[in-house]
Amino acid sequence: MITGAHVILYSNDADADRAFIRDVLGYPHIDAGGGWLIFKLPPAEVAVHPAEGEGRHELYLMCDDVHGTVAELTDKGVEFAQPVTDQGWGLLCTIRLPGGGDLGLYEPRHPKAYEL
């Protein structure tokens, strides 16, 4: 019935963020026309957290070695809005996107649903 999920990042500079995902993160992509790139994401999972008031949605990239990934991305000129912190459930940091937005990156300590 459902065959996939489509994630949308809103950006103040979509071209710069598309170039970042294409060139820095190296995600494969298709051009849907006019430079409108759609990227293949790594395996994914979804969690539902309780919220007070209106809910919100967040996107986090996951990795097996956050310190190694941060070092590799730093060598590519990536800026981080938040350094690596221990959250108990994993090690978390925040990538600053060229368009001004932030993107979470973490090394999970919890079981990964995408490995099912």
Automatic annotation (TrEMBL):
Residue ranges occupied by any VOC domain in the UniProt entry: 3-108
InterPro entries recorded: Glyas_Bleomycin-R_OHBP_Dase, Glyas_Fos-R_dOase_dom, VOC_core
Gene3D superfamilies with a match to the protein in the record: 2,3-Dihydroxybiphenyl 1,2-Dioxygenase, domain 1 (3.10.180.10)
Highest taxon in the source lineage: Bacteria
Name of the molecule in the record: VOC domain-containing protein
